[in-house]
Amino acid sequence: QDPVGFWDPAGFAADGNQANFARRRQTELKHGRISQLAAMGYITPEVIGKLPGYLSPSAGLKFADVPNGLAAISKVPAAGWGQILA
Known about the structure:
The chain contains 2 helices and 2 strands, in the order αββα. By secondary structure, the protein is mainly α. It has a two-stranded antiparallel sheet with strand order 1-2. The longest helix has about 30 residues, at about 20-50.
């Protein structure tokens, strides 16, 4: 792999198993794409704004009232998390 050669500082590919190498490469690509989507999910509401209306009409919680990032976990009602996880 010119010009710098094969770089594997942790030695994950030292066993020479092509199947394991291909799986690790695919997994790393998948995790990278998920990370990019997560970053955009954090940035986008700050740039273009949040949805109008209510997240929970019964609780009087608007989308604009929910902060970005981990702070949103405590603001979403338990029933809302139940719908997401179900």
